[in-house]
């Protein structure tokens, strides 16, 4: 039985982590802490995996910057793939989380995200479908290999709920801290979180 591993790696810390919902806004770079986290991720991956076959990354600066040390360590060129981009938060992009948490819609985001579409943006279901398709495409390209995918908290949490086989409304229970690594193993075409 061939096992393929897809590593979902959240970007490192930025100056707005936990304060603002940056979404797909351009120009947000890693903080000094985030750059250190990216270097640590590369070291940890090299200690754990002798080979990574490919690196995919969201097009946003913070994910590309997080992927750079790993690409350097493994001698790979990251492939930019929109499947791993942050959720399109639409009108909520750039807003403070404290302000958003006061909106009536915030309760839907927290309790039943499967029913929510960001005003002028993407739904949680669309985001989950997009990232799962990207993960499965990456896994299919490298059967028996190891693929690193650098992404964002919400797409990773959506993937975690999918591969745990739980409803998308369990989304808020999934964890994807800055510079965290989540491993999805595929065996006989079926993926699961390990």
Automatic annotation (TrEMBL):
Pfam families: His_Phos_1. SUPFAM superfamilies: Phosphoglycerate mutase-like (SSF53254). It is an enzyme of class 5 (isomerase). Transmembrane segments: none annotated. CDD domains: HP_PGM_like (cd07067). It comes from the Bacteria. One of its GO terms (cellular component) is cytoplasm. The keyword Isomerase applies. One of its GO terms (molecular function) is phosphatase activity. This is Phosphomutase family protein. It comes from Corynebacterium genitalium ATCC 33030.
